[in-house]
Design brief:
Elements (H helix, E strand, L loop, with lengths): L1 H20 L22 H12 L8 E2 L1 H20 L9 H12 L2 H7 L5 H8 L4 H13 L6 E8 L2 E11 L8 H4 L3 H20 L4 H20 L16 E2 L1 H7 L5 H7 L7 E3 L2 H13 L2 H16 L5 H16 L7 H25 L2 H24 L5 H12 L2 E5 L17 H17 L21 E3 L4 E5 L14 H6 L1 H11 L20 H19 L17 H18 L3 H4 L9 H12 L3 E2 L1 H10 L5 H10 L2 H6 L20
Parallel strand pairs: 3-5, 6-8
Antiparallel strand pairs: 1-9, 2-3, 4-5, 7-8
Helix pairs in contact: 1-17, 2-25, 3-4, 3-16, 4-16, 6-14, 9-10, 9-15, 10-14, 17-18, 17-21, 17-23, 21-23, 23-27
Length: about 675
């Protein structure tokens, strides 16, 4: 099968060259973005994109900024254009236009939302207040799950890691409001300050909901105590990266024995679920959940659930709730100083809940068929680059390489948008009740997810909406997915040279392919099964190579005062993805006519343009507060290290810019990290 990939790749490269020959002119990198006062071998992050960052400071409503993030916000502007258009026109009931247009209209009706205040949420708060025994607590937990407030545990569908052709239920840890468990448990100053601010914030929300200040302060402490107990029973973010750490097949009967105070039979019946074998991510967390169910007072449970409801839906209420929610989670934690425009936020919410309805119009207007075709050609070519990288790996035995080739050949590729659109016609959406619209859409989403459990995997489903400016690899499906929203400038364009397309979106494509062979993805076989396919010697070699990457990124620190290091183990998968992405995209690029030429464009060789394109696409400026937040829970390294880190290991980069040994952008051979 791998030879077929290479054969098809050759044909597609030829097709690409013919298509390019018909284009009168192609655009290279943007020279005005570059800071050429900086030597490329000293700091390629600044050299490739420093001038753009200087001229384009982070907007007040954003936590980071670059041409890539600017493009993501431009996508939302395009969604606003669509929604402003269709929301003013008549549409057939339950059609995509009616659902998205009316949802957006209800969201942007700020006068009505502000006049209603807390009123739309009162019936839900009243049901929590009516809890009087274990049975009614169980019932409220079920009802909250159905509107997306999955506390204290989550229940979602997932392919079975031991039988990936079938879908099972996966029960995970939830119920926390701060970014992760460390915010509840660590003693460093920034965590202590975050907890203090959180107590003030919770109390303020309770006051807005009608509580006296003294009672609100008391209730905030109750919430903190409850969530801290859950946090202490949760795995940290590094532990969660190990698929085996969250792999605990459990029978329905054993789940009931694990948490006897929760009525799983009633939960399953209410959600039309079949009590088959499932997975419990964190058994210790469920033990703590049982402890809370058995020993925490109903009064404290009600306080906790009121908070969870208010916290999850504050953005759907009147402006004082929106402002307070923003002030803590965005201003204080992330450093953002201004709310995005209401229309942008409403476009985001419409996309989040009705994305494949809105996405149909998005791709009609902004993603032409020729873009899809060229992107598909690139994916095939870069898969071929991964094949070449595996073949060249002198540290792997032939038998392990064979299994790697089998996995690569089985990768499913999705580009642009689904072949079959999701049908949202069962959702009731009106123009008059934004909260009710949202809850109806959330009930649909939860039910749609639950309906997959106990059935064969539906391989045509997507995990992102078409307008999303992102991409992903799913190890349980062995699939790579590139929505139309990321296949836009500056990542990709039919008017770009191959150097720019392969250096920007090409590295992203390579990054996602490499995830199938990073420290997590490499534990899954071609079918998505959690199973070792490595020989002991090859696995040891692989671990030594990945340890090199973790050590490299452990050495990087975030900006600003202090000495806060990136956690190389937390960012390992993404760092491997970037390292492999650069390598295999470059291999694919070198097979194009442009990659084989030496013709200068604006004074730069094709190889130089390739690397500059990556630096310009990935060159984010990030707020210090966001850096502090991200170093705890974001598996992606800071953007500048996503430029500097992989390129400093890559010999073709050093050759392209004539970087000499000892340069900052050239790691010594003894320290150089190579995985794929």
């Amino acid at each position: 099968m791998s030879s077929v990939i290479r054969y098809c790749s050759t044909l597609l490269f030829a097709a690409t060259l013919v298509a390019q020959a018909q284009q009168p002119a192609l655009n290279g990198v943007d020279l005005s973005d570059m800071d050429r006062k900086v030597a490329p071998c000293d700091n390629f992050y600044d050299y490739s994109n420093g001038a753009w960052r200087t001229a384009n400071p982070i907007p007040a409503s954003m936590d980071r900024w670059s041409r890539r993030w600017q493009a993501g916000e431009a996508n939302k502007d395009q969604l606003r254009i669509i929604l402003d258009d269709i929301s003013t026109k008549p549409a057939a009931p339950s059609s995509p236009a009616q659902l998205t247009g009316d949802f957006y209209a209800a969201c942007t009706a700020t006068k009505a939302i502000d006049a209603a205040g807390i009123t739309p949420l009162k019936p839900y708060l009243a049901r929590i207040d009516a809890i009087h025994d274990s049975a009614s607590l169980n019932q409220q937990l079920r009802e909250l799950h159905n509107i997306g407030t999955m506390v204290p545990f989550t229940l979602n569908s997932t392919p079975d890691p031991h039988n990936p052709g079938m879908v099972i239920a996966d029960i995970g840890a939830g119920g926390l409001s701060l970014p992760d468990r460390d915010y509840y448990t660590k003693t460093e100053k920034r965590f202590v300050e975050a907890r203090a601010g959180y107590l003030v914030h919770v109390a303020r929300i309770f006051v807005l909901a009608g509580e006296p200040a003294a009672q609100a302060a008391k209730d905030a402490q109750t919430v903190m105590t409850f969530e801290t107990a859950l946090a202490k029973a949760s795995l940290d973010n590094v532990a969660l990266r190990d698929p085996h750490a969250v792999d605990h097949p459990t029978s329905f009967d054993d789940l009931q024995k694990m948490t006897p105070h929760f009525d799983w039979a009633a939960f399953y019946k209410a959600n039309n679920l079949t009590p088959i074998t499932l997975n419990v991510d964190q058994p210790a967390f469920m033990v703590e959940t049982e402890k809370q169910l058995a020993s925490t007072s109903l009064a404290d449970w009600k306080t906790y659930l009121r908070w969870q409801l208010l916290n999850n839906y504050a953005d759907l209420l009147s402006q004082p709730f929106v402002d307070e929610h923003f002030d803590f989670f965005q201003r204080k934690l992330a450093g953002v100083t201004e709310l995005k425009p209401r229309g942008t936020r409403c476009a985001e919410n419409t996309d989040a809940l009705l994305g494949e309805a809105l996405g149909q119009e998005y791709v009609k207007r902004y993603f032409p068929p020729e873009s899809k075709k060229r992107a598909e050609v690139m994916v095939t070519n870069i898969l071929s680059g991964m094949h070449d990288s595996i073949a060249a790996a002198d540290w792997m035995t032939p038998e392990t390489k064979k299994r790697a080739f089998e996995k690569l050949a089985a990768v499913q590729v999705k580009v642009g948008y689904p072949n079959k659109w999701k049908d949202y016609s069962a959702i009731k959406i009106t123009r008059t009740d934004y909260l009710d619209d949202t809850f109806n859409a959330l009930r649909f989403a939860v039910n749609d997810d639950h309906e997959q459990i106990g059935k064969p995997v539906d391989r045509i489903r997507w995990g992102m909406t078409p307008p999303t400016s992102n991409a992903y690899y799913n190890p349980l499906m062995n699939e790579i997915v590139f929505p139309a929203g990321i296949l836009q400038p500056p990542a990709f364009s039919n008017s770009y040279t191959d150097a720019v397309n392969y250096g920007a979106i090409g590295v992203v494509i390579g990054h996602e392919i490499s995830h199938g062979f990073d420290d997590q993805g490499a534990q899954f076989d071609a079918t998505g099964k959690l199973e070792n396919w490595w020989s002991p010697k090859d696995l040891d070699n692989f671990h030594a190579r990945t340890a090199c990457v973790a050590k490299q990124f452990d050495g990087y620190i975030i900006d600003g005062p202090g000495d806060i290091h990136i956690n190389g183990k937390l960012t390992l998968g993404e760092s491997i993805g970037d390292l492999g992405g650069v390598n295999i995209a470059y291999r694919a690029f070198k097979k194009t006519a442009e990659g084989q030429s030496t013709r200068l464009v604006d004074g730069y060789t094709p190889d130089q343009q390739f690397f500059i394109a990556w630096g310009q696409f990935r060159g984010d400026e990030v707020r210090l507060e966001t850096q502090r937040l991200g170093v705890q829970g974001d598996p992606h390294p800071l953007a500048k290290y996503r430029v500097i880190g992989p390129l400093s290991n890559f010999k073709p980069f050093a050759a392209a810019f004539s970087c000499k040994a000892g340069s900052t952008m050239v790691r010594p051979d003894a320290d150089r990290c190579v995985v794929w």
